[in-house]
Amino acid sequence: MLQRLGQYVAAGTHHIVARLGALDLRSQHDQLERIADLVPAVRKAMDHPIASEGP
């Protein structure tokens, strides 16, 4: 997932919207924690964009 987000950043994305796909609070909390874990890496990718893959 991180690599895919890095590709969006390399393409010029400035905003990422995440949608939770869980109904119960515990699952929502778990999903939010996983998203929060990605934030530092996405910010780093914004500072150092990943080279895009060729066709």
Architecture overview:
- The chain is mainly α.
- It is elongated.
- The model has no long low-confidence stretch (mean pLDDT 82).
- It starts with a helix and ends in an 8-residue tail after the last helix.
- The protein is 58% helix and 0% strand.
Structural class, by secondary structure, is: mainly alpha
State which percent range the strand residues make up: under 5%
- Mean of residue pLDDT values: 82
Describe the sheet with the most strands. Answer: none
DSSP strand count = 0
Low-confidence stretches: none
Helical residues, percent: 55-70%
Query: Helical segment tally?
Result: 2
Radius of gyration: 13 Å
Dominant shape: elongated
N- to C-terminal distance: 20 Å
SSE ordering? HH
Write the layout of secondary structure elements.
Elements: H1 2-10, H2 25-47
Using brief descriptors, characterize the structure shown:
mainly alpha
Short description:
This protein has 55 residues and is mostly helical. It contains two helices and no strands.
